[in-house]
Every structure is written in structure tokens, then in C-alpha cells.
Amino acid sequence: MFSGRWDRVLLRDNKGRIFLDVDPELFQKLLDYLFVLRDSTEEGAIEWPDVPADKRDVFDRMRVFFGFAEYTTEATPAAA
């Protein structure tokens, strides 16, 4: 996404910063997952974060959009 290939289509603010129109709470969950994945020494799969049931579909679409769908084949767990 940030390789330069998509520069013409990425939304930017008046200072040239990239604007991502995503749910901040869900994006933070995705970032937190990536930090855990990066720092993990576990051999097994890292579980995706709990996401409220009413936001699960949005989170799954966001994962696909950012290219992380292949990291799991299991459904995103619902928050209790």
C-alpha cells in the first residue's frame, strides 16, 4: 500500500499525510495484533483480538483490505 504504487489514489490531508478512513478502535486492534505477531516467539498461530459482534464484519473487511486475510482461516472471535 505504501510502496509508491498507490500514491495517486491514497487520500491525503492538506499536509500530505495519508488519511485512512477506518474505525479507529478496530484499526488499533489490528495494530495491536501486528505488534504481538512481530514480537511473538510462539510457533502456533496468534489469535485475532476480540471484536464486538456488531463490528466483526467491519473488522474482517478491514483485515482483507489491508491484506491480512491470509493470516487465519478462522472467524474473528466475538467479544463476550
Largest sheet: none
Q: What is the H-and-E element order?
A: HH
Radius of gyration: 14 Å
> Number of helical segments?
2
Count of distinct strands = 0
Mean pLDDT: 78
Give the overall shape: globular
> How much of the residues is beta strand, in percent?
under 5%
Report the uncertain regions: 75-80
Structural class determined from secondary elements: mainly alpha
Q: In which range does the helix fraction lie?
A: 25-40%
Q: State the separation between the terminal residues, measured CA to CA.
A: 33 Å
The oligomeric state of the chains shown is single chain
Task: Offer a quick outline of the entry.
The chain has helices at 24-39, 56-65.
What does this entry look like structurally?
This protein has 2 helices and no strands. The chain is mainly alpha-helical and 80 residues long.
What's the structural blueprint in terms of helices and strands?
Layout (H helix, E strand, L loop, with lengths): L23 H16 L16 H10 L15
Key phrases:
80 residues; mainly alpha; disordered C terminus
